[in-house]
Fold these 2 entries.
Entry 1:
Amino acid sequence: MERELTAAKRRNRWLLGVGALLLVGCMAHGNSKTISAQRFECWDEQGRTRFVLEAFLGGPALGLYDENDKPRILLAVNKDRASLILCDADGRSRVGVGVAEYGLPLLCLLEGNGKSIWSAP
């Protein structure tokens, strides 16, 4: 077990070094005020995903995650709509708010199984 932990620490240091080199290379390559990527992930000190920012289905999307790697808030925008989804501690969608095509407002409350409890319009 000690050997596995040592190997994992070595891999983490190596990956951190490679990531730092890539970041420095990207900054040296282009405008030093801009970092370009299709997906950006941020982890905490335990390696758990805390947020993800990415290009998704034709627009930007942001996911915020809790300490158990479960999505809690999802925000997405594309050509026709914008949406905000709030999730429970198990990562299941529970509340959805959005603006659909033609500016139609949407509000939806969901049970844990994804079945709609209430929605408007």
Note: The chain has two domains: 1-36, 38-120.
Entry 2:
Amino acid sequence: MSAIQATGFAQVLIARHSSNPQIYSVSQDYRQGTYEATQHLLERGYRRIGFLGQSLQFSYGQERLAGYQQALAEFQLPMEERLISIPATSRDDPSLIEIKTLMSLSDPPDAILTDRELVVLSLLRELGYRVPIDISLVGLDESETAGFLEVPITTLRSPKFEMGKHAVELLLQVIAGQTPASPVYFPMQLIVRDSSPFHING
């Protein structure tokens, strides 16, 4: 980004933010979305919610973790480090080792939050776990096929069209010499499906 900034071209980031006030940004509200996803599980009786996050080097990694923490705090539940897996550096998909470590705890999670729900679903099946019979699963960034699986997955839907439209509008304003409001956040929509039923032990 610094190289682009040096050219003097206007910049608008989509789906992430910069601490540089000269860089404008439009994003889904990762904190709000993760808060609502966590709250959804808590309201359905889940109390040991695993969190597979992204690196805290990225704004969306920080925002998701903050939303998760906020929901736990409102339910007066401690944040248990063993239930959280966050890489130090960038990685897209959780590994089999991450899932196996989480599920091998003496008191394993009863639900998992992840932005890679299809990968995690596959890894859980590889380890012999059934969703939602053995564990519930909620996605933090909806995959296109999430609603068409044998067990449709509860996910957060991103307002992609709205973000793209607003990003172009911001860019045009900046090119015109205006100083638009930034950062801009669009709410995510929780789509409740079969992968997060009411917890029978909740």
Note: The CA atoms of residues 101 and 193 lie 27 Å apart.
